[in-house]
């Protein structure tokens, strides 16, 4: 191969699904509802994302008269309520607290720490829909603090991804042109939003899913984060 | 029951899923892919909605520097491409044209014409994500022209539902306060968006789904459109 060299001055990572396995809550859910944990976890996650998009639009993203969107902790709790109802499951306050706490201690994907190390000394950041209050314990629990320059959250804007105003947060903070920022996400819709914004985008397609069709495709498709560092040496 | 009388001066209906059965394309899909039509239709619809939300956000809804969102015909074609790929199905240009044409001739739900008649003489409108070019043949094919005062489309705004700027189209055109407009949708997320905007909302819950949790619940939940006229006489 004689591909042109990839020039990336800094990396920005999505958190949920990319560095952290959102479906690690399935184990906790399965202890509460034996045999039902995985289905509950999948529906919970699907609704959580749907609610970020819907509440962003309902808040009139960007309009002068914008309402306030609910934060990610609220949306996550609402999505859990829906998923429980849709599956006909009843859960008390203790069980809910258990599942919501599991969201603050998600497993890190096994390939993440070594890959983050291999990308040094380039600055590495998180840019996430999560609140700082949700993300800080997550990073700490996974022992990733020393791999990261910092964590950027949508807390400071009234909208969720894939609004360009979210991706702009990284540009503003890093002071590097978008085309020289490597944006890494396992969420195809996030990868496409980031590509439309102008980043160099790496989509981690862990499940062999088809690429989404509603915007420009990611620049690179990799199977795990471990595939990223070798790309930069080609 | 001693419920207070419901005062509605005009009705606004969602089109896809509410008056017209989006899954009537499953029959055409099943002729192309025997036994696979229903699954293809479900995924096609789910992605179509997802792409309306994502492209609205990517277009920076409301931002001064907003990009242009793709129209509903484009989003529908993109969603079909994704659904085919996800199901491992290959379809040529003729087959695609067949399925896209099926979208212009969706079945009307059987309870719709009589219910629309029963709601007269109140003005009855459609407010839809569809383009006028998609909606006109649909209304004509179903023979609903004489039941409707007109069709409002998101063509004139750069965003899809549930942005308040879409619901505002009805307010601007009808010149009636939102609380005296009855908004009818089978799509719970649309019903919730319309309720947040201020309409009196009737959610047609044809499938016994749980209510979504990310915003104010609809005022009324009915099983079919036939349940609506009797509510007004109580």
Question: What's the arrangement of secondary structure elements?
Answer:
The structure is a homodimer of 234-residue chains.
Chain A: E1 10-13, E2 20-21, H1 25-32, H2 37-58, H3 72-86, H4 93-102, E3 107-108, H5 112-119, E4 124-128, H6 132-142, E5 150-153, H7 164-174, E6 181-185, H8 188-197, E7 200-204, E8 220-222, H9 228-233
Parallel strand pairs in A: 1-4, 1-6, 4-5, 6-7, 7-8
Antiparallel strand pairs in A: 2-3
Helix pairs in contact in A: 1-2, 1-4, 2-3
Please characterize this protein's 3D structure.
The structure is a homodimer of 234-residue chains. Chain A is an alpha/beta fold and 234 residues long. Helices cover 43% and strands 13% of the residues of chain A. In chain A, the strands form 2 sheets. Chain A has a 6-stranded parallel beta sheet, sandwiched between helices. The radius of gyration of chain A is 18 Å and the shape is globular. Chain A starts with 9 loop residues before the first strand and ends with a helix. Chains A and B meet through helix 2, helix 3 and helix 8 of A and helix 2, helix 3 and helix 8 of B.
**Oligomeric grouping of the chains:** homodimer
Task: Report the radius of gyration of chain A as a whole number of Å.
Answer: 18 Å
Shape of chain A: globular
| Strand order across the largest sheet of chain A | 5-4-1-6-7-8
Could you name the CATH topology of the largest domain in chain A?
A: Rossmann fold
Task: Please provide the count of β strands of chain A.
Answer: 8
Q: What do the pLDDT scores of chain A average to?
A: 94
Distance between the termini of chain A: 8 Å
Helical proportion of chain A?
A: 40-55%
CATH homology-level superfamily of the largest domain in chain A: HAD superfamily/HAD-like
Measured by residues with Cβ under 8 Å of the partner chain's Cβ, the largest interface is:
A-B, 40 and 40 residues
- Into how many domains do the coordinates of chain A divide? 2
- Structural class call of chain A reads alpha/beta
What is the top-level CATH class of the largest domain in chain A?
Alpha Beta
Strand content of chain A: 5-15%
Question: What is the chain-wise order of helices and strands of chain A?
Answer: EEHHHHEHEHEHEHEEH
Please give the CATH architecture of the largest domain in chain A: 3-Layer(aba) Sandwich
Largest sheet of chain A: 6 strands, parallel
Spans where pLDDT lies below 50 across 5 or more residues of chain A: none
Count the helices of chain A. How many?
9
